[in-house]
Structures are given as structure tokens and as C-alpha cells.
Fold GNAT family N-acetyltransferase.
Amino acid sequence: MIDDLPEGLMARHLADDDHLRVLAVLDTWWGGLKGEAGSTERALLLPRLYFQHFTTTSFLVERGGGEIAAFLVGLLSQAEPETAYVHFVGVDPALHGQGLGRALYRAFFTLARSNGRRYVHCITSPENTASRAFHTRLGFTASAVKPDYDGPGLDRVAFTIDLSAHPVATPSVY
Ligand SMILES: CC(C)(COP(=O)(O)OP(=O)(O)OC[C@H]1O[C@@H](n2cnc3c(N)ncnc32)[C@H](O)[C@@H]1OP(=O)(O)O)[C@@H](O)C(=O)NCCC(=O)NCCS
């Protein structure tokens, strides 16, 4: 499913039972970004429906003992046949910088391509400098900050990548 993971990690699609386990790591993994408001915002961005109806386009990475190491919640756009979308991605801070985030995206790009998708979109908070650097490094183009994009006070930066402008995924790209 994901063939270039760091040793000792295994990937599978997301499942209903993963919902509360994933919610439990969000605040730690996001470093408490934006305080209590950020915590509420993150929890509300991941209702159970993603763990029921978007499982085949989402991935979970676990350690041998079953502890969550990373996840990516993605979907194929219902309205735009050339578009796929990464809704949420997180990597255990203890594993940052080892290519896990890149491996998750590479797997999602492969899945998107195999479903005829050319573009991948995602958004992030302007305050999330790690996410902005990561997506830029992967080849995404960033928009200017979009004020109130997700509601009053919820500014966002939007990212897009055109998969047709990149060679088919190999370990050295994305
Ligand atoms: C953003 C995140 C997913 C990156 O995961 P990761 O596994 O550490 O990233 P990778 O090791 O695959 O890095 C891929 C590239 O991005 C770069 N990168 C990753 N994090 C970076 C950071 N904080 N600053 C600058 N560059 C960064 C890496 O240097 C690497 O580039 P390189 O291959 O040229 O060296 C991780 O930091 C995370 O989970 N953050 C908290 C949750 C979050 O903000 N999610 C995104 C918004 S939904």
C-alpha cells in the first residue's frame, strides 16, 4: 500500500474504529497550535463520517504494537472529476523528518492518478508554518492567505499540485 515507509511501520486504510484514536493525538501532534480554539477546530474537522465514508482514500500508519504513527484523510472530489483533496494529515512528532509525510502524499498521489485525477488540493492555517513549508517542498503551489476562507476568523492558505507536471511517483519525487 505504501512501499517506502521507515522500518517497523505498516500502512492500511482508515477504519471506523480509528476515529477516537486519531482524535486523541491531534493536540499533541499539532503542538497545541492556536490554543483551545485550535483544539476545538481540529476535532470538528474530523467527524466520524471520514472514518466511515472516506476510508478507501485515507491511510493510517501504525507501529508494530498498533500505536498510531501517522494518518492521511483524503478524498476524490464528487464535483470535480480531475480533482482529489487531502483533508487532514498528521505525523507523530517523534517521527518527523523521516519522509513519512512525503510517503503518505506519494501514496495518495498514486491513488489519485489511478482514479483519473490530475490535481490535488489542500488547505492549511496561515499559522501552520511547518505545514506550509512541507507542502511547498512537495511541489504544491501556495495561494496568498485567504481571509475568512472557512468561516469568520478562519483564514486559510490553499495549495494545489498538478500531477501531470510531475513524473510518475518514485522515491525521489514529491
Ligand atoms: C507537516 C508534517 C505532516 C510533515 O511530516 P514529516 O513526515 O515530518 O515530513 P517529511 O519528513 O516527509 O518531509 C518532507 C519534506 O518537507 C520538509 N519539511 C517537513 N516539515 C518541515 C518543516 N517543519 N519545516 C521545513 N521543511 C519541512 C522536509 O524537510 C522534507 O523535505 P526534503 O525531503 O527536501 O528534506 C508534520 O510536520 C506534521 O504532522 N505536522 C503536524 C500536523 C500538521 O500540521 N499537518 C498539516 C496540516 S493538516
